[in-house]
Amino acid sequence: MKICLLLLPLAVAACMAVPESTARATTPPADNASAPASPDTLDRYRWQLHDAVDNSGKRLDALFGLPDKPLQLDFAAGRIHVRNACNGIGGSYLIVEGHLDVAPMIHTMMACHDQTLMQRQNTITAMLSSKPILILSTTGSTPTLTLTADDGQTLTFTGSTTQGP
Length: 165
Fold this sequence. Notes:
By secondary structure, the protein is α+β, with helices and mostly antiparallel strands. 25% of the residues lie in helices and 35% in strands. It is built from four helices and ten strands. The chain is globular.
């Protein structure tokens, strides 16, 4: 009888529901849902610029001058790489309390006369240096990465799966 009384609290604890935070972490996001950003999720995609607006909601058309080579972010092994700007740009990053925290970035020093490429470089460098809010969401099967600076400027990237070995 004493053993049954000692085991009763353990049996009750085993039957309790899983805490809500644990249940949410294992449930895939629904359509148009946000998900916690993780390096694993970022690594799985090539992120190409889909939309860019300033703090008043006006589209930043200067970033879209080369539609066959959109501004692209690639994440791998704790590093971020910027493609299709004037220079190659990269650095290490962390996700800290919903913000993308990029360490001081390194970049090549090529001269660039294309205004679209220069505008992309200036915009993405400023954005990544500002520790923007990072939001991952999904509409249908298309993942979206949104970066928002403190001043309200927002860059939205869509993800396409990387071709891995």
